[in-house]
Amino acid sequence: MLTLFRECRIPDKFSHVGKFGEVPIDAQSELDQLPCPPGQVCSFRLAPGYMQFHLKDPGDTLVRIPQQNWGYSIDLEGCATADDYLQKQFKSKYRSIIRRYVKRLDACFKTEYVTHGEDLAPDHYESLMEELKTMIDRRFGQRKESHKEEKNWKDILANSHDLIRRNKASLFVIYADGEPIEISLNYHFNGILFSCISSYDIDYSKFGLGHVEIYKQLEWCLANGFRVFEMGVGGMDYKRRWSNNIYQFEHLVIFKNGWPQNAKSRLEVARIRIREYLKSKKVNEIPHRLKSRFATWGRGGDADKGPDIRDADPAGWDGDWHPVDWISGEHAYLRSHVFDFLYSSEEQKKDVEVYESRVHPGHYAIRGAKKARELRFS
């Protein structure tokens, strides 16, 4: 059922669809139809629990089965600004943290927040999607996990530009000094902005880019008539914190009244309910747990301690140090350390230089306009 957001398609069994409490839209005139084989039991997973579905044929029956999958969304009803939502959703301390992320990013870099729409050129689209894929691979590789859309990536890449061109999708990008550091592929549906796939450059992790993205996307939603920001399935902590509408997904089963469809439908409903019961008992997590256990088997606790970090005097450098290119090439692994320094010292990227000791290889110094830091790799 994510095809509802991703492709603006709906099973041809439905006449109208929409959020509960709102006037539903005409599915037959405003959405592409997804054919259901005549006389068959139709089964669709991951339907948002807050959506209402009206059957076209009164001879059909719809069964909605709660799934052990939770969704996260933000309803902006009553909010004029993103800060209005922060005021409603968060306590003072957490509001300050989110605002600090935004202000610190803007202070350290020349930032741009761009929602690319129908004018996005094909080559620019492909470049941004390649950047997004690289971000996903690095982030999930770090976590030793697979991204939920990895198997669908080729189809998403092939189809999304056409949706962007038709104003049914967009690419939100955070640029720092002209470089994409966070990208979200969004789908548009009836006042809902669905952030389907998003990721960021993990070198900038200190800046809380997940929070910055949501804050800036809420600004865009409010400026462009979108009431709901949908973050989809997956219970990451930051999603839970931001969401004021946490809901269960549902599995929809549609069938004709009468024999033999009733018998087939009972088997299908029973199969789904058994599967969801097993998921509720965490049976589906056993393979992942075993895989994680074997992946970490025999590893030492100090495999990646990182460098020894200490503050330094930004003045008084002598000839024992030589500058290195930390942005690319063999010293690019220093990027995350430099960005951590920028965040904590409130320096600007344009003022930072990195040096390596001639006497002690593996010893580096990050120097800004006001502060400095030494890194000592053992």
TrEMBL record:
Gene3D superfamilies in UniProt: 3.40.630.30
The BioF2-like acetyltransferase domain, residue ranges: 92-240
Transmembrane parts of this sequence: none
Pfam families reported for this sequence: Acetyltransf_6
Protein name according to UniProt: Cellulose biosynthesis protein
Annotated organism of origin: Robiginitalea biformata (strain ATCC BAA-864 / DSM 15991 / KCTC 12146 / HTCC2501)
